[in-house]
Amino acid sequence: VKDRANLLFIGLPGSGKTTFLAALWHVLFDGASATTLKLTTQSGERTYLNQIADEWRKCSTVTRTNLHTEQVLVLHLEGVGFGAFDLSIPDPAGEAFKQQLEDRRMTKQHDTLIEAATGVTLFLHPDVLKPTPLTTAQRVEAELLGLQDDSVTGSHLGEAHPWSPEMLPTQVKLVELLQFLIERTERKMRVALVVSAWDLVENLRLSPCAFVARELPLLQQFLEANDDLLEYSVFGISAQGGDISDANAKDSLLELDDATKRIKVVHDRGASNDITLPLAWLLRRP
Ligand SMILES: Nc1nc2c(ncn2[C@@H]2O[C@H](COP(=O)(O)OP(=O)(O)OP(=O)(O)O)[C@@H](O)[C@H]2O)c(=O)[nH]1
Ligand SMILES: [Mg+2]
What we know:
Elements: E1 4-10, H1 17-30, E2 38-39, H2 47-57, E3 71-79, E4 83-91, H3 94-103, H4 108-116, E5 119-124, H5 133-149, H6 170-184, E6 189-195, H7 208-215, H8 217-225, E7 230-238, H9 247-255, E8 264-267, E9 270-272, H10 277-283
Parallel strand pairs: 1-4, 1-5, 5-6, 6-7
Antiparallel strand pairs: 2-3, 3-4, 7-8, 8-9
Helix pairs in contact: 1-2, 6-8, 7-8
Bound molecules: guanosine-5'-triphosphate and magnesium ion.
């Protein structure tokens, strides 16, 4: 790896980008656990990182990033086989990607980040509670069938909502975001696909790869089909460690003697709590 590396985070609002960064900063700053990448010096502007890591330690939800609070952070890192290097990672607002999808254009600043990117981390919240397109289709079908039966009272048809990009299924949005990326680069790009909040779907007993293949087949097939442009790997990551909106779960997280134990990273080769793994995978020499 060269002495400077740039990573790009991509993900819709609420996909877990800031939580990941908060846990990463806690681990790097703490320096007590074995990680592939380590901090060399702590110099630089740290207000934002300290704030989100503090929220993370208290198990309170990290502040949502908006277009005005986006930050580019520079970490001084080293690792066996990596040497010492400066890693710049911006914490973008998911809102910016939502706008990209709606307006079909991106900001100059974002384009510059793509240009400079060594690799990309694409975040995806498993959102288990959201209805799938299939269940939505079944519900609509049932409603329409019901309408035919009582055509006198049925006024649902008049309530049709105009289509908007917001209604696109998540996997379609993510494929679009990857397409923007491919269009703007000539190099082959590495993509670490991070399924965040892995604790919510762990009980399905699927590997992160199998989870994506089952739940987001379009995204998975897109990644496979474009292997000349993209090299990808899937990580299941619980950066928070559990569902902090559940008081019991939150209490047991707070009771742990070492907050680093909350973190779980699942990859092909098994589970660990080394949250630097996806970054190391992106930065490793081909
Ligand atoms: N259960 C669980 N929830 C998580 C985990 N990590 C993040 N979350 C939840 O996911 C939601 C979104 O997290 P953020 O990190 O703010 O997402 P973001 O991608 O930075 O969102 P924007 O700032 O809007 O772009 C929050 O409600 C978190 O509590 C996790 O490891 N487990
Ligand atoms: Mg954020």
